[in-house]
Amino acid sequence: MDIFYLKKSEFIPHITYESLKTFSDGREFKCEEKELEHLCGIFLTKFIAKHAYDVHNLEIELRNKKPHFVSNEIYFSISHSKDVVLVVFNNSNIGADVEYMKDSKNYKLIMNRYGHKVTNPTKKDFYRFWTVHEAEIKLNAHIRSLFSKTLEDNYMLACVSDNIFVSNFCIKKLSCTGENIDLSNELKYPKNIKFSSI
Description:
The protein is α+β, with helices and mostly antiparallel strands. The protein contains six helices and ten strands, in the order E-H-H-H-E-E-E-E-E-H-H-E-E-E-H-E. The strands form three sheets. It has a five-stranded mixed sheet. A three-stranded antiparallel sheet has the order 6-8-7, with helices on one face. The protein has a two-stranded antiparallel sheet with strand order 2-3. Strand 2 (60-63) and strand 3 form a beta hairpin. The longest helix has 22 residues, at 32-53. The chain is globular, with a radius of gyration of 17 Å. The mean pLDDT is 93.
């Protein structure tokens, strides 16, 4: 399992919006922010699949409301929250969720509603529970492996699989080294986008 992410505030200013729109899959969104998150997720998925996993057919289709590569070469799960967009790749079915950890929720009430009787949950307790819950919905199968970690100090990340994880749990962050980057060209010949382990 490998995790890759970008921060929209660091990515969007370096790219051309027109080139990001070329990754549209025809979905319609109620607001531009949701569309940007979705398009960033699609670009990130295709870029990593091609350059880290040598996937040649980057066409994505929905099966039971879950995205898959038509070629079935590798499994992935996309998630986004606030400024973070991430994709997780695995050699078996995977579900992932990332959430920005806010202070304003009634953690105990929500956890109790979902059958987790807790006395005094912390913010991290709640978001660990919630991201695992959301990741399991995306997995749509029984969990056999689970990975959970804080990201960038104020995000919680959870990944679940219906098989055993075989991984060093590598997390890599995207960075851009140019301006007005054409993402279609970058997908073919990467020059301005790099990843570094965190």
